[in-house]
Design goal:
Layout lengths: L3 E4 L6 H9 L27 H10 L4 E8 L5 E8 L15 E5 L8 H15 L4 E7 L3 H9 L3 E8 L4 E9 L7 E4 L7 H12 L3 H12 L7 E6 L2 E9 L12 E7 L8 H14 L6 E5 L11 E7 L6 E7 L1
Parallel strand pairs: 11-12
Antiparallel strand pairs: 1-2, 2-3, 3-4, 5-7, 6-7, 8-9, 9-10, 10-11, 12-14, 13-14
Bound molecules: coenzyme A.
């Protein structure tokens, strides 16, 4: 397989971009989410000219990045991909949302370019500071499922769309941050259950059995309220969970992020922020929003989009604590 480079679309490639679209007869796209659109080139088909599309691409700068996968040896576009920097877009259905879309032109498929293109796109995602990329594809899209798995995609679940009649496989691809730390859900690494329960218990003085019970329910899919870890190699260096009620009187404000902790040597590196954002995204794609959080901190959670909501009485506490919301 020849070397590919990802470059943002430019007017110099206008003729090739048109050719790329023409190479996709509609019946080639039967296994994609939207058979009328070529993944990775969103809105291109709705634009009258390539120039119009390039203006649209420019308008989306900072929110979405598009790339052409160009073969270095002959300058031919073999694929297109796009990366959304955040999962939440105004009109999106949370369950069906993803960070990435991609395609390889039919004449260049089955040569390894699809896997290589996604690998390069994930490098861009990592450079942009993303630690987890959600990708979805139809269960019947054999090539795309293989491309995602070849790039470390962890199967999250399969969901059925009533309206579309499609079954979609959802995957997450964890990416190391700039320090090399990995951000995982306990479902990504169920073998860590005992160690994680021990770790949380040592930080918060709550019996490990209490954590084990919540974690088992999560792993057995009795609840979607999960447990999230930051790992430096094999060491747990940060973590938090989500439970119905974090021991306070406002039972109506649920669910709650709890047990937020980063090892002292690892603080001020953005670990808790990344884990909080990961929780918000993960639960939003399961239609669980807003989230609440009880704390005595002021000024920390605001940095990650949380806002003060009200005061609440923690069980057995004399003073009231601050309740935050993320919606
Ligand atoms: C999905 C797509 C990007 C794959 O591109 P590609 O360049 O063929 O991918 P690769 O060559 O890297 O294939 C990766 C693996 O999947 C296999 N594969 C690819 N397409 C396949 C198919 N239709 N049936 C069976 N296996 C397939 C390849 O043989 C390869 O297997 P290997 O790793 O064992 O050698 C391409 O088929 C495409 O553009 N489809 C239309 C758009 C689309 O579906 N986009 C994804 C939307 S979620």
């Amino acid at each position: 397989m020849d070397e590919l480079i990802l470059i943002p679309p430019t007017v110099m490639y206008a003729d090739q971009i048109r050719e790329y679209v023409e190479e996709f007869p509609s019946d080639r796209l039967q296994v994609t989410l939207d058979p009328d659109r070529i993944p990775g080139t969103d809105e291109l088909e709705n634009c009258a000219t390539v120039g119009d599309w390039l203006r649209y691409v420019k308008d989306q700068e900072g929110k979405v990045s598009w790339y052409m996968a160009v073969r270095r040896s002959d300058g031919r576009i073999v694929g297109f991909s796009c990366l959304r920097h955040a999962l939440k877009f105004d009109d999106d259905d949370p369950e069906f949302t993803s960070h990435a879309g991609y395609s390889v032109r039919p004449s260049e498929q089955r040569k390894g370019y699809g896997s290589e293109q996604l690998r390069l796109l994930l490098e861009k995602a990592r450079e942009a500071g993303m630690v987890r990329v959600r990708v979805i594809c139809r269960d019947s899209n054999v090539g795309s499922n293989m491309v995602i798995r070849a790039n470390g995609g962890i199967f999250v679940d399969a969901i059925y769309g009533e309206e579309s009649g499609m079954t979609l496989n959802r995957y997450d691809i964890p990416l190391p941050d700039l320090y090399g730390y990995r951000y995982l859900t306990l479902r990504d690494c169920p073998e860590l259950k005992e160690r994680a329960a021990e770790w949380f218990s040592s930080k918060w003085g709550v019996p490990r059995e209490a954590y084990l019970e919540c974690m088992s329910d999560y792993l057995d899919r009795k609840t979607e309220l999960g447990w999230y870890l930051c790992m430096d190699g094999e060491k747990i260096v940060g973590g938090m969970g989500v439970i119905e009620n974090d021991f306070h009187d406002r039972k109506d404000l649920t669910p709650n992020v709890c047990a937020v902790y980063t090892e002292e040597d690892y603080r001020k590196k953005g670990i808790a922020g990344r884990l909080l954002n990961m929780i918000v995204d993960d639960l939003w794609t399961r239609d669980i929003s807003p989230l609440y959080l009880l704390t005595d901190h002021t000024g920390f959670y605001e940095r990650y989009g949380w806002r003060f909501f009200c005061m609440a009485q923690g069980d057995g506490e004399e003073e009231m604590s601050r309740m935050y919301i993320h919606d």
